[in-house]
Amino acid sequence: MVVAEVPKLASAAEYFFKMGVEGKRFRPTVLLLMATALNVRVPEPLHDGVEDALATELRTRQQCIAEITEMIHVASLLHDDVLDDADTRRGIGSLNFVMGNKVLAVLAGDFLLSRACVALASLKNTEVVTLLATVVEHLVTGETMQMTTSSDQRCSMDYYMQKTYYKTASLISNSCKAIALLAGQTAEVAILAFDYGKNLGLAYQLIDDVLDFTGTSASLGKGSLSDIRHGIITAPILFAMEEFPQLRTVVEQGFEDSSNVDIALEYLGKSRGIQKTRELAVKHANLAAAAIDSLPENNDEDVTKSRRALLDLTHRVITRNK
Ligand code: GRG
């Protein structure tokens, strides 16, 4: 799906799908587990060849959603690295860096997005098309919200959570819903799938924001500090600001001067900012788990295993240290 006609575009579009640099593949993993978790198996006597063929076709269509989701994700990473002028991604050079050409990196992202659109159209389900088109709108909205904040918005937890939903949680929540819709599930189940993805995505990003300060260690300042150095204010600083309102003056001055980064870290260290962010992540992880627990009962072995794996992921997102 990502192979292009023109060699330069082909190598650019394939760049992050090569062995070793394909990332965690967190989103497709969640989506394929969700597909099995929502399986409705027909009882044995009715279970003939026709049912098997239908199940296989459904699985192929759901797998297509997982592929489309990862392509949209990688396209957004390519564009993000251009906007941030990033040199590295997934432990190697970013595409804009290795190509020495930002326009080509943007075009590679556009190419992935257009191939994702073609795949989406092939599913012939307009509701699913609407969900994923909305995701792209959300990614662009979230990115724009991040780069065009007023001082009040930068210091607002509501603004931060909205932006986090758009930039990180919308993709996984709407894709989870698409998996449920393709399975012909009820509106109630589709909402539970959406709620799982939304809360897992929010928990994931809150922990990402903690790790940006702590890195793999538990101590402050050991992370890459990339957000704060780029002037991006995340939950730990927002919580610290509630305890130390004087931190707002530092935030308003900006972080071009690295001594302001040090001052902010000092306040953060004295505050419960990291702890409160972790607690908020736990709250969302628990909401994600509650959505799985509310699914209609099903004793099928594969369904049970997949639901357990989805529950396990809610623990992993909050305990991960990288
Ligand atoms: C072209 C669709 C499109 C959008 C353009 C630039 C932009 C608008 C949106 C940026 C969205 C963005 C980069 C959000 C951050 C999402 C995020 C949490 C990325 C990191 O995901 P991981 O940790 O990465 O799953 P890996 O490398 O494992 O895939």
Automatic annotation (TrEMBL):
Swiss-Prot/TrEMBL cofactor(s): Mg(2+)
Compartments in which it is found: Mitochondrion
BP terms from Gene Ontology: isoprenoid biosynthetic process; quinone biosynthetic process
GO molecular function: metal ion binding; prenyltransferase activity
InterPro entries on file: Isoprenoid_synthase_dom_sf, Polyprenyl_synt, Polyprenyl_synt_CS
TM region positions: none
GO CC terms, sorted: mitochondrion
Principal cellular location given in the protein's record: mitochondrion
Pfam families linked to this entry: polyprenyl_synt
Entry keyword Magnesium: yes
Keyword Magnesium in annotation: yes
Keyword terms of this UniProt record: Isoprene biosynthesis, Magnesium, Metal-binding, Mitochondrion, Transferase
Signal peptide: none
PANTHER family noted in UniProt: ALL TRANS-POLYPRENYL-DIPHOSPHATE SYNTHASE PDSS1, GERANYLGERANYL PYROPHOSPHATE SYNTHASE
Family stated for the protein in its record: Belongs to the FPP/GGPP synthase family.
Protein name, per record: Geranyl diphosphate synthase
Native organism: Citrus sinensis (Sweet orange)
Taxonomic lineage from the root: Eukaryota, Viridiplantae, Streptophyta, Embryophyta, Tracheophyta
